[in-house]
Amino acid sequence: MGSRLLVESHKEVEIVCGIVAITSEKLFSVKKDLLFGLKKLEYRGYDSAGFATTEGNYGKEVGDIDNLLRSTQKDFLTKTAISHTRWATHGGVTKQNAHPHFDAKKEVFLVHNGIIENFLELKAALEAKGYIFRTETDTEVIVNFLHDRMKTSKPIDAMRDFMKAAKGTYAVVFFKTGSDKLYAMKKDSPLCLGVSKGRVFVASDIYAFSHETDRVIFFEDYEMAEVSPQGFQFFGMSGPMKKEPVQIQWEREPVIKKHFDHFMLKEICEQPAAVERLLHSLKTTQAKRMGEIADMVRGCKRIFFLACGTSYHAALIGSYLLSRLGFEAHAVIASEFEDFSIIDKDTVVFAVSQSGETMDVITVLKDIKRFNPKIIAIVNYPYSSVHRMADNYIEIMAGQEICVAATKTFTNTLVAIYELARVLRNHIVLDRIPSIIEEVISENESNVKRLAKKLKDKHDIFVLGHRVSYPIAREIALKLKEISYVHAEGMMAGELKHGTIALIEPGVPVIGLVHESNRDRMDSALREVQARGADVYKIGNHSKDFMLPDGLNEEEYSIVSTIIGHLLAYHIAKLNGLPIDKPRNLAKSVTVK
Ligand code: F6R
Prior knowledge:
Elements: E1 4-6, E2 12-29, H1 30-39, E3 48-53, E4 58-62, H2 65-71, E5 77-88, E6 101-102, E7 108-116, H3 119-128, H4 139-149, H5 155-165, E8 168-176, E9 182-187, E10 192-196, E11 199-203, E12 215-218, E13 223-228, E14 231-236, E15 239-241, E16 246-247, H6 263-269, H7 271-283, H8 287-298, E17 302-307, H9 309-324, E18 329-333, E19 347-352, H10 359-368, E20 374-379, H11 385-389, E21 392-395, H12 408-424, H13 433-455, E22 460-465, H14 469-482, E23 487-492, E24 509-514, H15 519-531, E25 535-540, H16 554-575
Parallel strand pairs: 17-18, 17-19, 19-20, 20-21, 22-23, 22-24, 24-25
Antiparallel strand pairs: 1-2, 2-5, 2-11, 3-4, 3-5, 6-7, 7-8, 8-9, 9-13, 10-11, 10-12, 12-16, 13-14, 14-15
Helix pairs in contact: 3-4, 4-5, 7-12, 7-13, 8-12, 9-12, 9-14, 12-16, 13-16, 14-16
The structure holds fructose -6-phosphate (F6R).
């Protein structure tokens, strides 16, 4: 989600954001109620934030929501308000460009996630009518467009006109000053309604109101709603429509750091419980679905795993495992999918996305639906867009992950994929994973800290893996980049000698992921770099650097070696005083292309 800005150089800037709006029978506090919900969506972006109440009071601030709370000295009590938190990929992080946006007379206040591709064209038409633009955002075009249309039409008709005229993606919520009604519309960017007693929420995702209600309605594309404290009415392009709330089952865990300094560490340390919970559900509530999915795989001609970032690394392991079991299986990064794939009704596509809202994944799913593949979602968020587009799904049950970097969701995605492989051919034992994780974390704290001290000032780190540990090498390198801001490369050990070895010189750190299944190749690659003076560290049995239990199978090894890599990235970042849970330039749900 995001909106497109035009900065001075007329460069387009995309932003990813979170929306929370409330309309209520009783007065509520902007700070305690509205911004509390917004804070729960902060993982969507934290470059700037803002709110507006129906009385015309508003506040905006550059920085995260705490900054907005600090700078908003006075609290406001209101019955209807909107709020927004934003993430920009580059440039354009100013107070003026922060949401909400409004027309010149402050009659309409609006928040938006998405990109209006033809906003210059729409803007020119509005300028010809006398509208003056004060920001460079495409969002201001939406406000002025609706403001103009609402001079003669009802809000729903104005939104319908907008949806006909606009090209792009958007989730929009607005109010007219002085009214207690909220209006909302959606195309591509996620939006949902939370229905509570005497109070209705409109938000980018369900976590914004999980503390208050479990009754939810999801907007589908080209749907609109008029929302008042007493209820709501949905509309499609051709008229009113009836939609009923679904009941969400929350895992009611408070989102607090407990005694941990950062959510990242908390989330790494809670993995034994997260894996246990998933394994239990895979044997009980999710067992039937897993059986159905295994049948789909058995009956298909080819399998694609579709994912981005950390989820892609889990997907890559999935493709290795299913290939070993004799299936034609490929993992493709979602943004590169179009040139790769033969998709037909005999194809199974695993859409792997912890958030279930990654736009690169959703775009592919929308595109391939016409070929009728079987789509299986592997998600942490049930009811997310990816889940709702799928024929079947596995919920990875990691619990909410607050740190932008994926840790426990990666592990649980792997466990879900391993369980699928186990159901397909009963050859893997997964039950020991929770206790092994526990042991590895507790026995390696000082080892990880020691290595972090040695590596904290390094500019480049190479991580080598082979077979299942190759995707793990890439995963560890990704975390070293995103959390520790160290340039890192995760490589196939065998590829090093085909070029990259030119970069190895005395003192360059190389981390090798060594397991019985890859020992020969790993040993020779590590000997090659050692001969050139590299500082070699091993994650594996018989390593002087880390303690791993004997006899780990490949699946167990992949998980604990990742955890050591994640902890290493964490401790390097901590020693360097970096903002671990909110690394620069990133957001947890990347809902723009
Ligand atoms: C890295 C990270 C990202 C995500 C990627 C996909 O720590 O979190 O690389 O893995 O943006 O996100 P999902 O899984 O939500 O589709």
